Amino acid sequence: MNPHPHSHPHPLDELVRIESDPAYRALFCAELDAAIVDRFANRAAVVAEVQAAADRLRDLVRHGEPGRSA
């Protein structure tokens, strides 16, 4: 039984296509920009969640647990 050879693209093929095909470059850059914006939005959401959790924790430390007299 002969294994079937797998043709793997050269690692730089996509880079060559990005550099040589203006339409592909525009699409690639648009997708990259969208991914960067999405990543920053996700990061901002996580930072906001962490800040809110820190605020709740500070309130608990300052005022004790809800329903418990300090």
Overall strand count? 0
Residue share in β-strands: under 5%
Helix and strand run: HH
Gyration radius, rounded: 26 Å
Separation of the first and last Cα atoms = 77 Å
Dominant shape: elongated
Question: What's the overall average pLDDT, rounded?
Answer: 89
The percent of residues in helical segments reads over 70%
Care to describe what's here?
- α1 (13-20) crosses α2 (22-63).
- The protein contains two helices and no strands.
- 0% of the residues are buried.
- With 70 residues, the chain is mainly alpha-helical.
- It is elongated.
- The chain is 71% helix and 0% strand.
Please give the structural blueprint.
Elements: H1 13-20, H2 22-63
Summarize the entry for a quick read.
The chain is an all-alpha fold and 70 residues long. The protein has helices spanning 13-20, 22-63.
Descriptors:
70 residues; single chain; elongated; 71% helix; mainly alpha
